[in-house]
Amino acid sequence: MRFWRVIEPYIGFLLQGFALTVVACLLAIAGAVLLGALTASMRSSGNGLVRGIANAYGDVFRNVPFLVQLFFFFYGLPELGIYIGALETGIIAMSIAGGAFVSDVILSGILTVDAGVIDAAKVSGLSRFKIFTRIVLPIAMRVSVRPMGSVLINLVLTSSILSTITVNELTGAAKIVAATTFKPFEVYAVLLVLYASLTTLLSFAISAVHHRLNRFMTGG
Amino acid sequence: MIVAENVEKRFRDVEVLKRVNLRVEPGEVVTILGASGSGKSTLIRCINGLETLSGGKITVDGHDVSTKAGLVAARRASATVFQLFNLYPHMTALQNITLAPVEVLKLPKTDAEARARALLDRVGLSAQADAYPQQLSGGQRQRVGICRALAMQPRYLLLDEVTSALDPEMTGDVLRILAALAAEGTTMVFVTHEIEFARHISSRIVFLEQGELIVDLPTAKFFAEDGGLAVPRIRQFLSKMKKD
Amino acid sequence: MRYADFTPYDIILLLQGLGVTLALFVGTTLIGLFLGLLLAIVHHYRIPGCRPVIVVVTEALKNSPVLVQLFLVFFGIPAFLHIRMTPVEAATLTISLNTAAFAFVVFRSGIESIDRDQIEAAKVFGLGRSQILRLVIAPQAAAFAVGPLVGILVNQLQVTSLISVIGVFDLTKIGNILNLRTLQPFIVWAVIGLIYYLAAKALAHAGGRIEAALRKSVKWGGI
């Protein structure tokens, strides 16, 4: 196999890049879920200003290209005197962009929670915080598995853009291999197949998680 | 004691409750009757603080439900069973019952579970402790709902049309449990359409007509020709219910 | 005036960049939608051997990063086939194919619903196939496809920013140039972001109006 012969000497190097992709995606999805949950709760708030701020955040970061957002942080943060590494910048940018999408997902999840169920929790004396963390959020999360999964898959695809700010994740590593071997076709073809397999596997895993978490919740 | 004084409730322009007065003493079983839309459920939802009052005052053991601290204390003293069960869909029957005792009463988890299992055993659901609501029939769900309420060891049990969503066979199961509770002296406020059952277990019956509490009588007197039946609206209501 | 300051000429530069972005977006959209429709039709008529190829290729395009696709086309294909390719050609080819892959899915489900409804309608009314297709079902399918298509296009407009990475002088590339020269990244990228934002909003707005108009005409023209 000509593809394998090109790639083989660099497997270790590419695996390092892959590890970086995994780390970036895991941290970014954690950040995105945190930010998304916060934004979703702000968007369901009674305070108009709080709602407005949260809505504006979601609107802006969904309608500006991620590359532009990334450059804004990468070149802009040092101007503010904040010096962090490219990888950290990338993870922050991915969390912020992802959070905008996650907040949509969680908000629609929250809206599916039956009002009667919340009534039952209220009269049992649970605090607002406990009702949100023990009842509303767990139910919202369960119905959100699939859409949340597509956000995660999009984050994996987006993480390749971190290569433009010198992060040698999978795509960045492949760029180096392509330049070293003078075999860009073989390298990028393999890379494309790798990403496609990875995201396809992820979507199977997401389906499995969805079925597992919702096995007793058909119909809410 | 639950005391409602001149309770008013408006939804926008619609007056749902008009200057309602009601007292429920410990040990009483008070049934609230009335046509649909007469404000029965709203009255229950005012007592447990799910609706805010437009006027008047409700106290539970002296705690004013319109104040924050009063509502917390009032909800400690009472527990509600709902028409549509409102079980937590992501928790097993056992978890549904132990959540509030652990989180609110700060009961150790093992104690809460022991209490929950005893209750489930009592309503004939010991085998379903680890089942999720979706795996249970309507009657089973409502029995879990009753256990969830009883696990808080409330002084007052508020029952909001708890059998309306059940078929007759399951209704029987649930009513038997409620009758046993009444016999033990549990204080209950009971919104229902089950007239015969109400007659059997209630100490008092009150009748709501378009948001007004027009009759409040001991059960025997309510069904007497010179008592409740002397009121044309109640006679009409009872005969209609019998036909259904 | 320092070399690093903004100049009035920068506005022309920005407009040029926006022009390149929009031209490429419109071009790839037209090619992509046409290609997507073509794929959906080929898929529908079950031409032997075509179905699995179409499905695998579109899935691969949807499930891999556009940046990698751009690298494969711009660096890989010329090296492999020993041909020359300009950044604009590579960008046009890649984004068109990518748009086609997403549009294919929308058109495919549109055609499937047309097919199903057509059979039912033909049974009910006893009308000719082409009559029903032309008068009833196609307008409806179009009206229902517009929503998802607009969503795809708003996304693809943002995706075009990636072509700056292979050296196309689009809006993002102009941002890079201004960023390097002025060293005022906050202002530069905020302005670039704002232009993209406004373009996306305008696109979504236009899409919404087209959808509304189509639905209205469907109501009016229905049997």
The biggest beta sheet of chain B is recorded as: 6 strands, mixed
> Can you identify the CATH class of chain B?
Alpha Beta
Low-pLDDT segments of chain A: none
Q: Globular, elongated, flat, extended or rod-shaped: what is the shape of chain A?
A: globular
Round the mean pLDDT of chain B to the nearest integer and report it: 92
The end-to-end span of chain A amounts to: 51 Å
| Backbone shape of chain B | globular
Helix content of chain B: 25-40%
Gyration radius of chain B, to the nearest Å?
18 Å
Give me the secondary-structure topology:
The complex is a heterotrimer of chains A (220), B (244) and C (223).
Chain A: H1 2-7, H2 11-43, H3 48-63, H4 66-79, H5 86-111, H6 115-123, H7 128-143, H8 145-159, H9 170-181, H10 184-213
Helix pairs in contact in A: 2-3, 2-5, 2-8, 2-9, 3-5, 4-5, 5-7, 5-8, 6-7, 8-10, 9-10
Chain B: E1 2-11, E2 14-24, E3 29-34, H1 40-47, E4 55-60, E5 63-64, H2 68-77, E6 78-81, H3 93-103, H4 109-122, H5 138-150, E7 156-160, H6 168-183, E8 187-191, H7 195-201, E9 204-209, E10 212-218, H8 219-222, H9 232-243
Chain C: H1 9-44, H2 50-62, H3 66-81, H4 87-125, H5 129-159, H6 171-182, H7 185-221
Helix pairs in contact in C: 1-4, 1-6, 2-4, 3-4, 4-5, 5-7, 6-7
